[in-house]
Specification:
88 residues; mainly alpha; two-stranded antiparallel sheet; 3 helices; 5% strand
Length: 88
């Protein structure tokens, strides 16, 4: 797989993981109850602990994808940093 296709795939899955993390975060914040017995609350027939599990693991996946994204763009990051600080 060439670098452009790999970059596209990483960015695509990073975007999907961001959406899932954002949606599950909003569900956890606004749709599920808080407190002592909140682990038993449900939204869309899914209990809170499963929402938290998906949120946490997809968030971890997103961290790894971000690291890969930075590695793929490292030359560009270095060039831009040198350009911004006047070094050539």
């Amino acid at each position: 797989m060439n670098k452009a296709k790999l970059n596209y795939m990483v960015d695509f899955f990073m975007f999907i993981s961001f959406l899932i993390t954002a949606i599950t975060g909003l569900v956890l914040k606004f749709a599920l109850s808080k407190g002592r017995r909140s682990g038993q609350s449900e939204f869309l027939s899914i209990i809170k602990s499963n929402w938290e599990l998906v949120h946490d693991w997809i968030g971890i996946l997103m961290i790894f994808l971000i690291i890969i994204h930075i590695v793929l763009h490292w030359d560009w990051i270095v060039a831009m940093t040198k350009g911004l600080f006047g070094r050539s």
